[in-house]
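Problem: given the chain below (129 residues), write out its structure.
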Amino acid sequence: MRAVAVFSILALGALPLSSCIVAVAAAGAAAFGVVSYDKNESWMDFHQDLDRVHQAAQDAVRGQGYTVLESKKISAIEATVDAEGIFVRVEKFPDGFVRAKVRSGTFETEDNKRKARLLLEDMRDRINK
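Solution.
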């Protein structure tokens, strides 16, 4: 009887935890992780196909007021968007996700980090619509 009571308490205690995990998983269905930054480049991972992330990159760049100079799909696993002061590379990975990398400006500054983060967040919002 005591073992059943302990098991019941443990099972009930795990319910809120499992529902939190489900909520977090559902919230990150299209985009996951946070914006990461390294060597003047920010990136975010998406659970979407390459074409959809590439289109979101183009739309976000234009939506942020930049002029797209060139946008091309290089292959089935890579695409780019080149704009005035912004460069976006979209890459498909074997693990089933697509990574968008954004480089803003030439040097690592807080303003360039901010611009790259805003662009990635705009892409995420467009994909999650």
